[in-house]
Structures are given as structure tokens and as C-alpha cells.
Amino acid sequence: MPFSRKHPAMEARHVDLDDEAWIESTIFGLHNLVSSGSLNNPTIDTHVIRMDESRIRLAANVFANSHDGIMITDPLGVVVDVNRAYSKITGFPPDELIGRQSNLLTSDHHPVEFRDSLRESLQTKGFWRGEVSNLRKNGKLCTEFMSVSAVYDSIGEVTHFVAIYTDISALKESQRQLEHLAYHDALTGLPNRVLLVDRIQHGLAQATRRKGLVAVCFLDLDDFKPINDLYGHNNGDLVLIEVAQRLKQAVREGDTVARIGGDEFAVLLTDLEGPQDAKTVILRMLDSVARPYSVDSATAVISASIGYTLIPGDDGDPDNLLRHADQAMYVAKEEGRNRIHLFDIEHDQRTRSKRENVSRIKKACQDNEFRLFYQPKVDMRRGKVVGMEALIRWQHPELGLLSPADFLLPLGDHPLLVDIGNWAIREALGQMAKWQAEGHQLPVSVNISGGHLLDPDFVSSLANQLAAFPQLNPRDLQLEILETAALEDVAHVSKVIKKCTELGVQFALDDFGTGYSSLLYLKRLPARTLKIDQSFVRDLLDTPEGADAIVCIQALASAFKRKIVAEGVEFIEQGIVLLRLNCDVVQGYAIARPMPADEVQNWVETYRPDPAWAASLKLPWRRSDFPLLAAEVEQRRWIKIVATAVKREDSELLLSRIRSLQKSSFGHWYYGIAKDRYGSMPEFKKIPDLHMNVYRISAEIGACLSRGEHTQASALLAEQNACSRVLLEGLVTLRKAIVTHTQKPVLPPPSPSFL
After folding, report:
1. Which CATH number describes the domain made up of 627-741?
2. Torsion angle of alpha carbons 335, 336, 337, 343, nearest 10°?
3. Is the CA virtual torsion 112, 117, 119, 123 positive or negative?
4. For the CA atoms of the chain, what is the radius of gyration?
């Protein structure tokens, strides 16, 4: 029996106590110990208390078989007894403990303050409980929940101390593992995002105190997916584990390598001396990842793209810093992969704006918010409509109708352009079929991006779309691609265009003249139409070189058997000059603005070409007389400028453009070649007074606007428009008189000698 009569604190104080009475009193005290966690005074009137034999056995079993370790000491801390559980927990047998000084705390894990607190609690309260760490006999650490109680006699003197130990080592280990899993990656053992964010916070605080530099890095493996595809996910996991080890070896002590998920890692670099210090460590990480890997008896090579941001220099919470590093990583990938990139705030703003635009445009595709508007192309010489160009518009629910410049240009070469291009082709084909069913066979051209044309599925997708409209002639569909896009990969573009022409589809090079095409490139690109960039048309009447550029393009087109179309024709006079240069097919605001599909049929049926075009074909013209047409265009532009200034109540818009008659473009023409050539004609002598009158009224309008007299300015505008009409009529009269006095018909100018 483990109980001993040497336990005076648990023994009744009566000489006539037999064994039964002694055990009664002992069990009573032990019962209080086990059930309440402390020992009360166990002194019992044994003349009153009698226990039966079964309760005696129960008392013995409680001490002997308790899973908790129990140690009893005298007031001086000498061990008087321990149970089997105590020996099992600690590894010390009873004979190595009984009679010796006890030690409640056998490890150095507890500071002096902790020990002093325990001792004070026992002395003042007679009780203490809490978690402790003790050493087993084999030297291993054991975590226990310990409850210590003082035992008092009838007069309140401490007779013994009883300590109960519960071994919670397994529980603490499970808790530690759960905590580890909560803060670490299960595969690599690296810190996870939660722990990394905590360490970034501490790193930022430390950097602020020490005025140091911190780097937050984001790493993504390049082309890791093929590793899983070729060798399986188990081998892929082994590679990730190896990457984790290499990164840990590449950084310095005190840095943190974390796994974010998949093939993404993040690294915190602290105590950096400067930006170059950070770059050195990051490049070391890049090199370590790029070394070959042994995978399933084979050798695999992968690389990484790393983005990073430096603090100070960047700001925000840890999540923002990680996001910035992530964005910089994507830039590294876009720049060719296997490289590093430092986060840039301005680039971040552009990237964020682009992503928001892409997201909104993608939603517009899903919500069917895009529309196709159609702008006519006409043959001025024949006076016929020869086709339509489909131009995309966005019917934005809040901003109204948006042009492509507002939403397509910011996309750059984003893959979303492929979806938009396919939609435009499909929509145009559907509209062509509808028009054809209504009796109008109208060829339509559709703009596509260079990235769309080079998409591997472009030709097959186009074939499927054509097959969906068997009633249409594929030759009526023309695809327009920017000249600059075509020149990026001439060989590939040429192959694609050739395959598409085999389907019957025609091609045009848009904005021709802006891409520095060589004659060889032009010969290799099988596009049948060249669309003259509108900048050449705009300069046609403004500079002597304007017409020369058109002549050169016309000569190239003729030499390579290409058709030409001039776009951006805004004034009838531009059309007259283009006709004289044998550029017959045009489009632009002078003919019609882009219109919805349901307006096209009526427009085509009611279209009549401007009479001036047909008339100009019957009259002889000289190249030297083209500046007169430019004078007419300048006056039409001036009318628009004045009207805009009055509408906006903007005096600066008008006053900044008012010049003296001599210094204006018109004055330069009038007092230069015009006066020398037409000075003797009476029609010419009327022009300066008419022009001066227009500019005088324009100056008065500007003055009224600057004084805030908007009503007076509007009244003067009507007067100015009337004077402008008289001036334009005078210029037209002069033009007709010049043609009438011309005796010799003038042919189009010869081609440049190098052609």
C-alpha cells in the first residue's frame, strides 16, 4: 500500500486509532485533494467517522491509480511520498525522491520572477496552480499543469504540501503543431502569408526606429506548370521544396522567405544598407532558382521573375507592399521573364488604371454594350457609294457614346482585343446579310489589331464566321490592319493574309505612310488596298509637300497594282485636289460622319455627290492653283473656331488665333503667290476687303467675350457668318475665273524621278 504512517499530516491524532480509522482520515484528506484541488485540514473525529472496507479500498486506489502525478512534502519541502503516476511522468522512482528535498521547478525555463511569484503565493494563499516546464530523468523537457496546496492542522499550521501534476506535453505539442500549420506552409515548412505579414509589420517598425531600408519581394516561377504536366504533381512538390531551400540559402540571416501559394514566394529583406544591397540579394535568389533540378532521373530548368519594392520610398500596409511587389513581378514577366523589376508608383497607377479598364471593357462585352457605326466610302469620280467602314463605339451606360480612342487605345495589345475583333467581324457579317436581304449589297471593312491577326486561331475563326453566312460573298468583307502592326512581323502577317485571301477576304493597310514601309515590304504584303493616312489629307492644302506625298503614294500603289483610299476628308476642297491627283475613293466628314446601321440604307438611297467634284473634273487645273483651295478651307475652319469660342464663352480660344491679314496663312497666300499670279483680275481685288471685314468682326467678338458680353458676341457671330459666306463666295468666284482664263489643260503632275 502506498500510504505510509509517516504522513502525520494525514494521520488522526488519537493513540487509539486502529488501521481502519487511520485510512479513513487519510482518504478524507486525499478526497479533498483530488476533488477540490487543495487539501483542507484532514483532522477528523475518528470516534464519529467510520468507513466501510470498500471505501478504504477506493481511497487506496485513488492515490495509486490516479493518472495525475502526486507528490507530498513536509513543510520544509522534503518529499514524504509520490504515486506511480508521478514516477511515470518524471522517470524518477520513489526511492530516489522520498526523504530528499523536493524541487517543484526542475528546468531553467522559468525566470526568477516566476519562481518568486510561486513562492509568495504558497506563503500567503497556501495555493498555486499554473503551467510549468520540468525536466524528466532522461533530460527531456516535460510540460505539466501543476497544482500545489498547503495542508493545515487544526490550529492553522502548515503540516504538508501536496503537488498534483498533469502531463500536458502531448497537448502542447499538438497545439504547437496547429500553431505551426496556422503560420507555416504545410509543404515547404516556410512561413505563410499570415506570418509574413506579421514579420513585415515588425520589420517596418524596426526600420522606422533605426532609419533603415526594407525590401518586400514577390517571386513567381516561370513556366512551372510543365514540370507538373511532365513529371507529375509529386515531383512538382519536390521541386517546390528544393526552391524553398535554395531561397533560404540565398538570403541572409534575419531575412524571411515565405510561400504564398502554388509557385509563388515572397521574401522580406531587412537591415539593408542601400538599394544595391537589396538588388544583390535578389539577384542571388534569381541565380539560385535558375540552377538545374534533378526531377525523376531527368534534368529540369526553371527560372523566376521577381518584383520588389523598397521602404522608405514606397508606403502602405504589408498587404499593399506585397501587392506592389506582385505588380512589379508581372512587369518583370512582361519584359521577358528571368529578371527582376523594382516597383514604380507611376507605373503602378497606369497598371491599376489599365486593369480597371480591362475589367470594365470585359463587362461591356458581356453586357452587349458595343455598337458598330458605319462610315461610307465613295468614288468621287463616279459619284457612287462603294462600301462602308465598320467603326466600333461603346454605348457606355454613364458616359454615353465613346469612340475607340477612349477605350481601345489604353488596352495596348491586350488579348481582349481578340474577343472584340471577333465580335466586330461577326456583327459586320450579320449586318451585311441583313442589308443584302433588303436589296443592298454593301462591302464592309472591319478594323482588327495586329495581335488579333497573329492569333493562332485567327484563320480558322474567320472561316467559321464566314461559313455562318453562306449567302454572302467573302470578297465583300475587307479587313483593315495598321501598317505599323503589319511591319512588326512581315513574314507571318503575309502568310496569314494569303490564307485569308484564299477564303476570299480582302485586306487593306490602314494609315499607310506612317510605318516606313520599304518597297520590298510592300511587295511582300498581299494587301490589295492602301488607305492614305489622314495626316497627309489634312496637310494636302496647307503645305506644298502635302500634294507631293499623295502623288508618291499614288505612284507606289500604281506600281504595285494596289488600290488607294484617302481617309479624313473634311472639306469639299480636299476632295477636289484628290480628284486632280487621281485619288478617287475617299471617306471622311465631308461625305458623312459614322452612323448607326439602321440609318445606312436611307443615306445610301439619298446620297448625292457634291456638284463641285463633278464640275472640277470638267475644268483644267494647275497644281500652282491648289493654294487657292487651301484659302477656302482656312476660311471654313475659321468659321468653326469662332462658333466654338462663342459657344464655350472662351475669349482666349479666339484671341490667341487672331492674326493680322499679312501674318495669317491666308495673308501669306494673298500677299505672296496669289497677288503675283491673280493681281490683275477684278475678282481678286475684292478679296482683301472681304477678308479684313471677317477678321475685324472676329476681333470684336473676342473683345466681347473677354468682357463677359456673351449676348453681344452671339449677335456679332451671325454678322461674322454672313461676312464669311460672302468671302467664300468671292473665293469660289475667283477660282472659277482662274479656271476660265486657263487656256492649257493641265495633266496630273509626273511621278518623282526615283519611281
Report:
1. 1.20.120
2. -10
3. positive
4. 47
Q: What are phi and psi of 630, to 5 degrees?
A: -65, -35
* C-alpha dihedral sign at 443, 444, 445, 446: negative
Distance CA 150, CA 121 (A): 11
**Helix 710-741 vs helix 626-648: crossing angle, to nearest 10:** 170
Tell me the pLDDT tens digit for each residue of 32-63: 443 333 334 444 444 444 555 677 677 677 77
Q: In what helix (H) or strand (E) does residue 142 lie, and over which residues does it extend?
A: strand 141-152
CA-CA distance, 670 to 661, in Å (whole number)?
9
What's the burial of 636, exposed, middle or buried (CB within 10 Å: 0-12/13-18/19+)? middle
Residue extents of the structural domains in the chain: 8-171, 184-343, 367-617, 627-741
488 DSSP assignment: G
Are the C-beta atoms of residues 285 and 267 closer than 8 Å to each other?
A: yes
Type of residue found at 303: S
**Residue 671 per-residue DSSP state:** I
Q: Choose the weakest-confidence range: 146-155, 579-588, 629-638.
A: 629-638
How far is it, in rounded angstroms, from Cα 37 to Cα 130? Answer: 12
Residues 199 and 193: their CA atoms lie apart, in Å, by: 10
Do residues 482 and 451 lie in contact, with contact meaning Cβ atoms separated by under 8 Å? no
Cα separation, 162 vs 150, in Å, equals 7
At the fourth CATH level, the homologous superfamily of domain 184-343 is Reverse transcriptase/Diguanylate cyclase domain (3.30.70.270)
For domain 367-617, the CATH architecture is Alpha-Beta Barrel (3.20)
pLDDT (tens digit per residue) in 77-110: 899 999 999 999 999 999 999 999 888 888 888 8
Please choose, from the candidates 187, 143, 136, the residue with its C-alpha nearest in 3D space to the C-alpha of residue 165. Answer: 143
> Is the pLDDT assigned to residue 335 strictly greater than 60?
yes
> For residue 132, what is the enclosing H or E element?
strand 127-135
**Separation of alpha carbons 273 and 310, rounded Å:** 12
Q: Are 646 and 717 in contact (CB under 8 A)?
A: yes
CATH class of 8-171: alpha beta
Instruction: Determine the pLDDT at residue 288.
Output: 96
User: DSSP states of 553-590 as a string?
Assistant: HHHHHHHTT-EEEEE---SHHHHHHHHHTT--EEESTT
Residues 6+ apart with CB under 8 A from 645: 651, 653, 654, 701, 702, 705
DSSP-based three-state secondary structure for 37: coil
Q: pLDDT of 528-587, one tens digit each? A: 999 998 888 887 776 656 777 888 888 888 888 999 999 999 988 889 889 888 899 999
Let me know: does 210 contact 254? Beta carbons within 8 Å. no
Contacts of 711 (CB under 8 A, 6+ apart): none
Which of the pair, 721 or 523, is modelled with greater confidence? 721
State the pairing for strand pair 213-222/264-272.
antiparallel
State the DSSP code for 673: I
